[in-house]
Amino acid sequence: MKAIQFIQDSNEAGSAQLNEVPTPVASGHDILVKVEAVGLNPVDYKVRPELGDDPKTLGYDAAGTVVSCGDQTSLFNEGDLVYYAGDVTRPGSNAEYQLVDERIVAKAPTSLAATTSAALPLTALTAWESLFDRLKIIPEIPAAQEGKSLLIIGGAGGVGSMAIQLAKLSGLTVIATASRQESADWCRKLGADHIINHHDDMPAQLKELGFDHVDYIANFNDIDSSWDAMGEMIAPQGSIVLITEHSKHLDMGGPFKRKSVSICWEFMFTRSMFTTDDILEQHNILTRVAELIDEGKLTATANDNLSPINVENILEGHRRLETGKSIGKLTVSGW
User: Fold this and answer.
1) What pTM did the predictor assign?
2) Which residue range(s) make up the domain with 78?
3) 27 within a domain of the structure (yes/no)
């Protein structure tokens, strides 16, 4: 089968190769999927500095058709259209076929083409786990969050785009950050109640909106530049979830200690990386997301597509993501 693989870390075209590799065989909990479309994410280019000289297949979002099932599978049949985010420790989705544990896979939304479905898994899982597993917000029960507010730092990105919608379904007042008019418009379209600019004084902007503080903060952007502001904006006994790396020392004392703030990390690959006892929960989450999409309660966040799946388009996708100005999700489809 064909696979797009990377070596070392370079923006040179030679860092990506189109290689012929053996088609894997499904066994155990794995299913073999014929990949029809892939979604691109910042993790795709962020892992490149860690690569050596051995070619590695990247890609952590896909939609495709099940072609065979391992002997311990029970969730899918050959011919099912599925979507998933995969496992960062295994070969990725930038290949004609991919092995993936069925417990982190779900049937794709019936109302969407594979190209659109491929944009959803990683960001939907990250947003869902951030809000409901880490911040302990009660999903889809507005009364449980009555009067509660959530600040999403990085509202127009892939994760933020899903989190805005999930938070609104759960009854929260949502303040999203966006620094450009087009990204602010995108956040409003998805349901954000208020917009502030993360490049300006965020606490002051919150106060202008009438908020002395917020109950929850989901930071899907830069931690370093917003750390002090988060300490000022979070409510006493509030909760913060983080998903990105930091490059400087973070002072966990100060306002965070005085306010008894809960700070937690979200890493979508934890369940698959460690084969946790609740690994099946990712199948359940993606199944519910597909239902919400088909019911018209969630909007897919695919905003651009490149075709076909080849070295040039994968590299172009990485370049666009590295600008930090992407809105929604970018997909690449078709072999």
Assistant:
1) 0.95
2) 2-120+279-333
3) yes
